[in-house]
Amino acid sequence: MNLQKLEELLKKEPGFRIKQIERAIYKDFYENWKDLTNIPIKLRDILNNEIDLSINGRIFQSDDLHSLKALIKLDDGITIETVLLMHREGRNTICVSSQAGCALGCTFCKTGDLGFKRNLKAEEIIIQVLFFSRYLKSHNSKITNVVFMGMGEPLLNYDNFLSTVKVLNDEDKFNIGQRKISVSTSGITEKIRMLADENLQINLAVSVNASNDEIRKKIMPIADKYKFNELLSAVKYYIEKTNRRVMLEYVLLKGINDLPENAEELSKKIKGLLCFVNLIPFNGEDQDKRPLTKNINEFKKILLINRISFTQRHKFGADIAAACGQLVFSKDI
Ligand code: SAH
Ligand code: SF4
Q1: Of 21, 55, 96, 148, which has fewest CB within 10 angstroms of its CB?
Q2: What's the gap in Å between 324 CA and the centre of ligand 2?
Q3: Which is the closest atom of ligand 2 to the Cα of 251?
Q4: Residue 332 clears pLDDT 70, i.e. is over it
Q5: How many domains does the chain have?
Q6: Residue 90: its pLDDT value, please?
Q7: What's the average model confidence in pLDDT over 304-312?
Q8: Quick one: CA torsion of 81, 96, 291, 188, rounded to 10 degrees?
Q9: How far is it, in rounded angstroms, from Cα 29 to Cα 255?
Q10: Are strands 57-61 and 275-281 parallel, antiparallel or unpaired?
Q11: The domain that contains 66 carries what CATH number?
Q12: In sequence order, what E strands does 121-245 have?
């Protein structure tokens, strides 16, 4: 698909025609121009010849039936992964990738192991949402939430990330409320501040993953550049500007950051902040990194005693490598 070319082709068309076509793509999720029976045949033929509506993707379903992973092949042959999580009560969350690979090399993350290939264009993020929208349409359902938690660091692809948010939120396009859109960042502080100034109501999630700089540096090389205090002050700024509650993600790694003193130190540092901690026990093959249940429980207990709100992330789709930090370039398409 080439949405930019589409815009050019439609430049001379009247507004109502553009609306009709947008509707067909973003609301009715048509995959074939021939289905747009309400537009003149001549225009339909032009569109049919010039713009390919198909998306080259393949779906994998997990045994729990609640998560699907799509591999999508881009025009230059790179494959990216996107995950759909189907919750109860018709809530469907799509987890999109914002970059092919990631340059930040967190030690616990498979995407980080791949290194960085390139930023995704806005259109390449949008087609991930279209792909699963089309799938869900055939099941009489739709995407209700979008999280930028797939491959890559969204705030290092800021402009394309933001353009995508606008398309998602646009009433004439996906019409997904800002409060249903979340972005997770490893903590690019100047971009967190920039995002705070955009006057949006989207949810911010920050991968804190440690209770101090020493531990953070060991597992997230980016922590060399952005200090813990600076990160917290950017989070505070986001809260001040948006009045939104921020999610602090914390991947629990056995013996590294899952100890009682880590829970104490974290609690002290974030006390009074409009936030909650989202605990994510390490996903992946490396048994040595998996926290023990008793340590997870102890960690939670300390947060509770310190009156820090927290949730524990449910592990979806481990069997299809769709859980957090498992997304890679798969050749299997
Ligand atoms: N780059 C962004 C967004 C993608 S990662 C970021 O780092 O925030 C989304 C979340 O998955 C992050 O909170 C990250 O810390 C977590 N994650 C990465 N690898 C993981 C793993 N192996 N197990 C559990 N969580 C992981
Ligand atoms: Fe990149 Fe996020 Fe993975 Fe770190 S956790 S390597 S920032 S995708």
Answers
A1: 55
A2: 10
A3: 5
A4: no
A5: 2
A6: 87
A7: 97
A8: 120
A9: 48
A10: unpaired
A11: 3.20.20.70
A12: 145-148, 181-185, 203-207
* Mean pLDDT, residues 205-215: 98
For residues 75 and 133, membership in a common domain is answered with yes
Instruction: Please state the rounded mean pLDDT for residues 37-54.
Output: 94
pLDDT at residue 14 above 60? yes
Give me the amino acid identity at 292.
L
148-170 burial: b if 16+ Cβ within 10 Å, else e: bbbbbbbbbbbebbbebbebbbe
Q: Report the alpha-carbon distance of residue 82 to residue 76 in Å, rounded.
A: 18
pLDDT of residue 36: 93
* Ligand that comes closest to the CA of residue 290: 1
Residue 202 scores a pLDDT above 70: yes
Residue 283 lies in a domain: yes
Distance from the alpha carbon of residue 200 to the mean position of ligand 1, in angstroms: 23
136, part of any domain: yes
Q: Count of residues for the chain?
A: 333
Are residue 267 and residue 120 in the same domain, yes or no? yes
**DSSP state letter for 155:** G
Rg of the Cα trace of the chain? Answer: 21
User: Is 324 an active-site residue?
Assistant: yes
For 237-246, letters b (16+ CB in 10 Å) and e give: bbbeebebeb
pLDDT by residue (tens digit) across 227-257?
A: 999 999 999 999 999 999 999 999 999 999 9
pLDDT tens digits, residue range 113-143?
A: 989 999 999 999 999 999 999 999 999 999 9
127 and 19 fall within a common domain: no
Residues 14 and 159 in one domain: no
Please tell me the distance from the alpha carbon of residue 145 to that of residue 89, in angstroms, as a whole number: 13
Q: What DSSP designation does 256 have?
A: T
**Is there a contact between 152 and 171 (Cβ–Cβ < 8 Å)?**
no
Structural domain boundaries, residue 48: 1-54
Question: pTM higher than 0.90, yes or no?
Answer: yes
- Nearest-CA neighbor of 183 among 155, 159, 210? 155
At 278-298, the pLDDT tens digits run 999 999 889 999 999 999 999
Please report which ligand is nearest the Cα atom of 183: 1
* DSSP secondary structure string for all residues of 22-51: HHHHHTS--S-GGG-TTS-HHHHHHHHHH-
